[in-house]
Amino acid sequence: MRLVRFLMKLSNESVVVELKNSTVVQGTITGVDMSMNVHMKNIKFTVKGKPPVSMDHLTIRGNNVRYVILPDSIPLDTLLVDDAKRLPKVKSLAGRGRGRGRGRGTKKK
């Protein structure tokens, strides 16, 4: 299972997100998109060395996330079940080249 798919299942969970610049964001996840952007509500935003700031909503760009710290109460065994339907691979014979080879372009005499 991909990490993004796991994070998408964490809607309405209270988590702590640490960013790459050592900022700590504590709040409730409202959603995660495919770029791993995390949308949160009821935020306590703590920049390193400064007092915390409270916010109603915040979106964190996915490439800025260092850690997502989960609470102990989350049932990981049920969340980690891969419920994505996989399509069986079908061998297709069409479109496998440009047709039958006709030699190497020999000169006509």
TrEMBL record:
CDD domains: Sm_D1
Compartment annotation: Nucleus
Entry-linked InterPro entries: LSm4/Sm_D1/D3 (IPR027141), LSM_dom_sf (IPR010920), Sm (IPR047575), Sm_D1 (IPR034102), Sm_dom_euk/arc (IPR001163)
GO CC field: nuclear lumen; ribonucleoprotein complex
Keywords assigned: mRNA processing, mRNA splicing, Nucleus, Repeat, Ribonucleoprotein
Domain annotation Sm: ranges: 2-74
SMART domains: Sm (SM00651)
PROSITE patterns, per database record: SM (PS52002)
A Pfam match: LSM
Leader sequence segment: none
Annotated GO MF terms: RNA binding
One GO-annotated biological process of the protein: regulation of gene expression
Physiological role: Essential for pre-mRNA splicing. Implicated in the formation of stable, biologically active snRNP structures. Involved in splicing regulation. Facilitates post-transcriptional gene silencing (PTGS) by limiting the degradation of transgene aberrant RNAs by the RNA quality control (RQC) machinery, thus favoring their entry into cytoplasmic siRNA bodies where they can trigger PTGS. Does not participate in the production of small RNAs.
Family per record: Belongs to the snRNP core protein family.
Name of this protein: Small nuclear ribonucleoprotein Sm D1
